Amino acid sequence: MMDVAYDFEKDKSALKVLGKRRRPDYYKDTIYFGKRSSDGYLKVYNKKKELERKGVKVHSEYLTRIEYKWKARTKREGVPLWKLGQLDLKIDERYEVYQRGELGEIKAEHRACLWAYEQGLIELHEFTRTTQKHIKKILSEAWERIDLEKMYRLEIENEVEKLYELLY
């Protein structure tokens, strides 16, 4: 099992994860996407809260972690260090992750619908077609997609470079 973790100095509500297969599961302060039995699943939680419980001082107002847990297909399958950057974890195939930008001027009615959708209180298909259209437009203008796979590859390249510098 390998964990790939991303920390964002944003409140959880400023990040949106859309799973491709099923609705998320909620347990305490953590949101789970996917099944633990699959070869990869994602969870989102308040990392600041976790660290502060352990007595670690966090200077940021918010710290949200998006963590992807990946399993090799077989338990004995190992991955050599030099191949880590070539792994296809399929994070972006399974999950779309967005961060909220500026919302700008939005009618109160649409703001309320967007809030209910973002909180997971109502699914997009439950709104009228007109409201769905407005919400999709707002989301496309105000939310920026985060490429987790690219972030992973860049981080692995940096870590492998550091190791080579230590070794040679």
Automatic annotation (TrEMBL):
InterPro entries linked to this entry: G2P_N (IPR022686)
A GO biological-process term: DNA replication
Pfam families listed in its UniProt record: Phage_CRI (PF05144)
Occurrences of domain Replication-associated protein G2P N-terminal (ranges): 20-59
Protein name: Replication-associated protein G2P N-terminal domain-containing protein
